[in-house]
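Narrative of activities, Objective 1.

The group set out to show that a structural description can be obtained from nothing but a protein's sequence at a throughput compatible with the screening campaign. Below is one input-output pair from the validation batch, recorded exactly as produced.
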Amino acid sequence: MSEFEIEEGIPIPGRKAGITVETPWPWPDMDVDQSVFVPAKKGENASNIRERVTPHQYGRKSDKKFKTRWMKHNGKFGIRVWRVA
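Output recorded for this entry:
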């Protein structure tokens, strides 16, 4: 016997209905043309920090668009994330 319960009559939700977009980052609070700088941790490069920060994954789930650029801000390297749509 399986540990899973077989059920009937459960409607299939729309594609995005079951997706949660919880994030520790400020992406939900950002308006178009706003940006935030995220400093790199020691030894982190642009690719590593983009994987950690994931604005594009959040954007796909929430229909928002973000752009990122590796840059220096106040003497620290990191990425700046802009909300563009």
